[in-house]
Amino acid sequence: MRVIFHEDFHQSFYSEDEFDNGAAEGRLVNLINALRDEGRYEIVIPAAATRVDLLRAHTEAHVSAIEQNKPRLYAMAALAAGGAIFASDLALIGEPTFACVRPPGHHASRAQAWGHCTFSNVALALLRLRDAGQINSAFVVDFDQHTGDGTKDVLRGWPGATVYNTYGNSAAELLQNLEDRLKTAPQVDLLAVSAGFDAYIHDLGGKLSTEDFFTIGRLLQGYAIRLGHQRRFAVLEGGYYLPDLGKNALAFCRGFE
Questions:
Q1: Residue 40 is part of a domain; what is its CATH number?
Q2: Which residues contact 1 (CB under 8 A, 6 or more apart)?
């Protein structure tokens, strides 16, 4: 399994919003150290997405506004989008991959973004593969505490793309709902995952344990195996309880790999 990461993701000054939890100082330190210490995951470095790639998912006005008014945010968000693209390329050749990037992207729609997001990382990676004729369909599972409204907006015009957001009032209910949905999920060319860890018991959602993240990863692995080709990748979204973010991401990866 590959892990996508760039040392620039440790920078927090790309965001001028003091309430941007996604840009918190040291947010990815615990996470990437846990994955490195595992010793089994190859860490690879992405390149920034091109403007052409960003425009597959967003309007010219949205991309230009970020580029001109918030150049530091644009640079980091383009690198995050590039991480998702690299992860999707590796998944296409059978390498399960987890992109540890920021800013996240599942609240970035075609013309705007909110919730710490800038560009629709998962969606634009899928659109790039579709436009290159490499895939015709994709299934997106988003297990963040919050609905990936941006991903849904960007992919809305593509009949071959399905987006499923996990839900449930308890961990048991959420896991059962996910398991049931995967049993009826479509036969697709690629599985993409928006991996948010803010439903954790000590985070915003207050319900999932570390073991539950392993179970989510294993359920998604099982679905990919049933697809036959096993093409799958995940991209980091939320997760703000920093002391345990690393062990939660590692648990997911152990299940997903």
A1: 3.40.800.20
A2: 40, 41, 42, 95, 96, 97, 98, 253, 256, 257
